[in-house]
Amino acid sequence: MKKPSIAELTAIFPFLRDSPELTEELLKRAIPQAFPEGTNLYWEGDSCAQIVFLLAGEIRVFKAHPGGREITLYEITPGETCILNASCILARSSYPANARSTSPVAALLLSAADFTNLLDSHKEMRAFVFNLLGQRLTAVMTLLEEVVFNRMDERLSDYLIEKSADNLLESTHQAIANDLGTSREVVSRLLKDMERGGKVAISRHAIRLLTL
What confidence tens digit (pLDDT) does each residue in 141-192 have? Predict the structure, then answer.
C-alpha cells in the first residue's frame, strides 16, 4: 500500500489543512498499512508501540468477558484515531480493550515516539486528540447510562433505529448482542417479541423496521 498524497490526507483529516509542516512530518514518519476484515489490531493487555490514523474502513473497539460476551465501546472511522491507543501511549500503560477491523482497513501507523513528539511540537495535533477524547468520553458515558438505567428492549429499539438505513439493518443477532453487551439469546428473544408485535420483520442476517 502506498502513502496517500497531501491532498488525500488533508481531505480525510481536515485538521491537517492548517499545518502543512505537521502534514509533511506525519507523511514522512508514518507507515501505510492495510488490514483485512476481522484483523485483531489490539488485544487487551497489549503494549502500544504504534498508533493508527485511519484512512479507510472501520475498527471496532470493545471489551470482552471471559464468558464470551462483548460490548462495543466505540467505532473508529476514517479521519479518526483510537483515543485508548493514544492514552496508553501517553500513560505508558497497556491497551485496556480490544480492537478489531470490521471491514478492510487502510491506515497510517505512527510509532509511539513519533506520536509523542508530534503532540509536543504541534498544537493542531493536540487539539485533534483532545477533541476526539471529549467525543469518546461523552459516548462512553452515554453507553454507561444506557447499560445501567435503560431496559434492554428500549436499548435494542434505539439501536435498530440508529443503525438501520431505509428501515433495514443487515446484521446478525450475535453482532447486535456484541454491540449492546448482552447475549445472542436475549437479542433473539426480544426481536421475536418485536416481530410478534408487528414492529419488525426478521429474515436471515437482516431486520426490517415496520413500526418502530
Answer: 877 877 777 788 999 999 999 999 999 999 999 999 989 988 888 899 899 9
- We report the CATH number of the domain holding residue 37 as 2.60.120.10
Per residue in 20-70, pLDDT tens? 999 999 999 999 999 999 999 999 999 999 999 999 999 999 998 887 788
**Domain containing 175: what range?**
150-209
**Is 136 within a domain?**
yes
Helix axes 184-196, 173-180, angle to 10 degrees: 110
Residue 1 lies in a domain: no
CATH number at residue 163: 1.10.10.10
Q: Tell me, yes or no, if the pTM score tops 0.70.
A: yes
Q: Say what the alpha-carbon torsion angle 128, 34, 180, 80 is, to the nearest 10 degrees.
A: 10
Alpha carbon distance 207, 173 (integer Å): 10
Identify residue 158 by its one-letter amino acid code: D
- In the chain, the amino acid numbered 107 is A
Shared domain check, 73 and 12:
yes
Contacts of 32 (CB under 8 A, 6+ apart): 1, 2, 3, 4, 55, 106, 107, 108, 109
